[in-house]
Amino acid sequence: MKKSIFYLIIVLPTIILNSCNLNDPKPSHLNIQGKWQLESFRGAWTGGDYAPGTGPILIFKKKTYQEFKGDTLVRGGSYQLVKAHRTLVDREGDRLDLDKGVFGGMFVSLYEDKLILSPDMYDAPSYSYKKIE
């Protein structure tokens, strides 16, 4: 009995501490800071383009973001970029979590002055932003 209790005292805390670390997302080193204007969105049944200078704007600072439509602030809050598994393509990607995941995560890709946001779902639209600052 003493051996069992001793075993539980040594092993159980190790298991608990290690399992917590497995669930914590790894930070992404992607830098999306700047001012981005929506140019287009594409999905299975939908899509559209914005004339230059007319699309909604996302502003990312070090840990916060703001979204504007014209001069109107639509929403804002905190964000984080983490490494996460993309089910559709079966590989790791950079996920953008707004407001601690309240709005769900979008995966991020950067190509020079383009920011692509895409959900990990079939037929859901992807959004293409151009860096303007």
Uncertain stretches of 5 or more adjacent residues: 2-22
Question: What would CATH call the class?
Answer: Mainly Beta
CATH names the topology as: Lipocalin
Q: Overall 3D geometry?
A: globular
Helix content estimate:
10-25%
By DSSP, the count of extended strands is 10
What fraction of residues sit in β-strands?
A: over 45%
Question: What is the end-to-end distance?
Answer: 67 Å
What is the radius of gyration computed over CA atoms, rounded to a whole number of angstroms? 20 Å
Please write the string of helix (H) and strand (E) elements: HEEEEEEEEEE
Largest sheet: 8 strands, antiparallel, barrel
Structural class by helix and strand composition: alpha+beta
Explain what you see.
The longest helix is centred in the first third of the chain and has 22 residues, at 2-23. The chain has one helix spanning 2-23; strands at 26-27, 34-42, 47-49, 57-60, 64-69, 72-86, 91-98, 105-111, 114-118, 126-131. The termini are far apart. The protein is an alpha+beta fold and 133 residues long. It has an eight-stranded antiparallel beta barrel. It has a single domain, classed as Lipocalin. The radius of gyration is 20 Å and the shape is globular. The model is unreliable at 2-22 (pLDDT under 50). Helices cover 17% and strands 49% of the residues.
How is this fold's topology laid out?
Elements: H1 2-23, E1 26-27, E2 34-42, E3 47-49, E4 57-60, E5 64-69, E6 72-86, E7 91-98, E8 105-111, E9 114-118, E10 126-131
Antiparallel strand pairs: 1-6, 2-3, 2-4, 2-10, 4-5, 5-6, 6-7, 7-8, 8-9, 9-10
